[in-house]
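To: structure subgroup
Subject: Chain for Friday's discussion

All,

I'm putting the inputs and outputs inline so they're searchable in the archive.
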Amino acid sequence: MPRRHLRMTGAADCSLGAALRALRTELDLPGAFPPEVLAEAAEAARAPDLSAHEDATDLPFLTIDPPGSTDLDQAMHLERRRDGRGYRVHYAIADVAAFLRPGGALDAEAHRRVTTLYFPDDRIPLHPPVLSEGAASLLPGETRPAALWRIDLDGDGRAVRADVTRALVRSRAKLDYAGVQQQLDTGAAEEPLALLRDIGRLREEQEVARGGISLNVPEQEIVQQGGSYGLAYRATLPAEGWNAQISLLTGMAAARLMADTGTGILRTLPIAPDGAVARLRRSAHALRVDWPPHVPYAEVVRSLDPTRSNHAAFLQECTTLLRGAGYTAFDDGELPDPAVHAAVADLYTHCTAPLRRLVDRYASELCLAATAGKEPPRWVREALPALPKEMAEGTRRAGTVERACVDLVEAALLEGRVGELFDAYVVDVQERNPAAGTVQLRDPAVVGRIEGGTAPLPLGERLRVRLTRAGPASRTVLFAPA
């Protein structure tokens, strides 16, 4: 199944919350932090290494995250360049290395966990909360150590200069996407927030020019419905895309710095094979998505409206072309092959979420060294060869958690409704068995397997289906043609 986002809104105290807690135990995921890790984190929170940080607390940074977030990796300040030739992006990334001792208990535990694991109602953090939600988080009104990027753009949004240094920063405001979108739509946003739309749109145009794509796949969201809960679809807001463009910009700038110095770790994605693209074309035809023969895939994706059911289904299908993404390290002056991330359509690396992803701490250190004209720290270089495998395992575990959560929520929602009929939309058909595939329900917002029929499923068509299996114990939802 394509990757699906899932969020819980105010339903953590229902029976579903208990089932999700049981799931964490069943999957044998990291539990409480060992005492020695907590002790080291507490000491680091009291006395981080700030010896190399300049003072940038005069810049009025702000953060944009989902409501309730406390592990804040990034803060931004956007402004027009003083020469009038474009824009300057100040992007502060939490400086996790200021709190970790290489080879210490805290460092070793981060390598064991690799990523923060997200559940609809909670998370299993990469670092102890005293750091990830406290001393290292870019919380408003607090002075924090950061890797501070300064990226100059010309009037068309092209990056013309980028560097990164250690700095102390202070966020002035913690904003969420809905609030930002409202300010931008009503004209209430003042600079620098208003520049997010201007720069975001320019960067989207640059993405189009280089052939990159961003998939705005609708999220499944758990919502309260009286004393119970349900599932709904939520289309992403334009402000979320503009915010993501700032992160992409920084990841591309970081990758360029690494390439120039000959040492780094890239996020790579091979170009999709012809067979996968041909299959996607067949899906587009079946889903009544217009894809003329001469039009590139990226242009079709940009034309989609995620609020339309057939377009939303096709966006889910498009995520199949993103399979195969990984991490590639290099330290000999030669770029790996492939070096480019096919969806970004450029060199790219992960460097903007070090509170939640292990590799980002190393990417920041490599870029800080490159800007300073120094060799990377020994502890960074020694870790590079093993990082791709570590990240692959951590990403696999995060995917397992995500799939299990979606399966559990859908199965729990439909428990007791076996035998009922639903209106569905066929969004995927198996090539080897065209009588089996995937259907998407509008109400409730469930995506599930369908099998048991004898005729090929009508890809892209509406279909009346019967629920044949649903239960949180097996985390399975199964439909059959009615």
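Points worth raising on Friday:
The CA atoms of residues 130 and 394 lie 22 Å apart.
The two ends are 22 Å apart (CA to CA).

D.
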